[in-house]
Amino acid sequence: MDQWTAFLSAMLLTLIRVSGIVVFAPFLSSSALPIRVKAVFTAAVTFLLAPIVGASPAGQARIALAPVMGELAVGLVYGLMLALLNETLLFAGEIIGLQFSFSAVNLLDPTSSIQTPLMNDLFQMMGTLVVIAAGLDRILLASLMRSFRAVPLGTYALWPGTSWSIVQAAGGVFLAAVELAAPVLAATMLAEIAVALLSRLSPQLPVMSLTVPLKTCVGLGVLVGSLALWPRFIEARFSILLNLAERLLQSTPSGTAMGFKG
Asked: DSSP H helical segments within the chain, as ranges?
């Protein structure tokens, strides 16, 4: 009876940790995935991990407020840190959409059921494809399994520096988005400068009608060419955020949270 109670306690705590990651992490948190599929996936991972992590002598497989809140905090730290990658892609899409004059072109985003700019949806879908093609979802699951060894079940305590480290990493979203959109920004800026010089040389040309089509064509060409750099960029940011989440779980003050900005 005691073993059965310990197993159920370990399974519940494991379910809380896995659920937090599924709710917030990229790709897994997408509403395009059916809720039943997420529920079955979460239950399967929990059922497979619970006997192993519950048998760890360093763990505390008991139902109490502190272990439950600790496991919930682990899932939130993982999920919120990795969600910054999705926010970077959305922000980069917003920047490029403004350069293309597409800010008024909105689509119904199936993942959030709200109206979002066209380029935001494009960047989010491309980022999801890179995550799947590069196998980053499997790396996330491997990191989740390692987290039970670094932070045994029911032993995590949220320390005050965690929130500040997450805020620092969130501050790097702007710089990372600008880096991703930099080739298109440079190309469209050069196109604007060229049109401005052309208007000075020949004032009778309809400059206003040339600016937007020229910027869009040049920007799209550069964007297509820069897609070859996306896998390396996304994999690097994903690894940085994942490593930072693991360090935060080990309750070590991280002075490298700003590394996401690099």
From this structure: 2-24, 35-54, 65-99, 118-133, 136-150, 161-201, 207-226, 230-249
Whether 81 contacts 248, CB under 8 Å: yes
Instruction: Check if the beta carbon of residue 233 is closer than 8 Å to that of residue 126.
Output: no
pTM to 2 decimal places: 0.73
Eight-class DSSP state of 29: T
Q: How far is residue 211's CA from residue 215's CA, in Å, rounded to a whole number?
A: 6
| For residues 22-37, average pLDDT | 76
The pLDDT, as a whole number, for residue 109 is: 58
Please state, in angstroms and rounded to a whole number, the distance separating the CA atoms of residues 207 and 197. 10
Q: Are 139 and 242 in contact (CB under 8 A)?
A: yes
Q: Is the pLDDT of residue 259 over 70?
A: no
What amino acid occupies position 99?
Q
Which residue is it, tokens 């996306």? 230
3-state DSSP assignment of residue 56: coil
3-state secondary structure (DSSP) of residue 109:
strand
Tokens standing for residue 260: 């996401």
Q: Which of 238, 27, 247, 259 is nearest to 132 (CA)?
A: 27
Of 40, 54, 41, 52, the closest CA to residue 12 belongs to 54
Q: Which two tokens stand for residue 220?
A: 């799209």
Cα 78 to Cα 157: distance, rounded to the nearest angstrom: 14
Tens digit of each residue's pLDDT (9 = 90 or more) over 72-127 = 888 788 778 888 888 888 888 888 887 777 665 565 555 555 666 677 777 877 88
Amino acid making up residue 9? S
Element (DSSP H or E) covering residue 108: strand 106-109
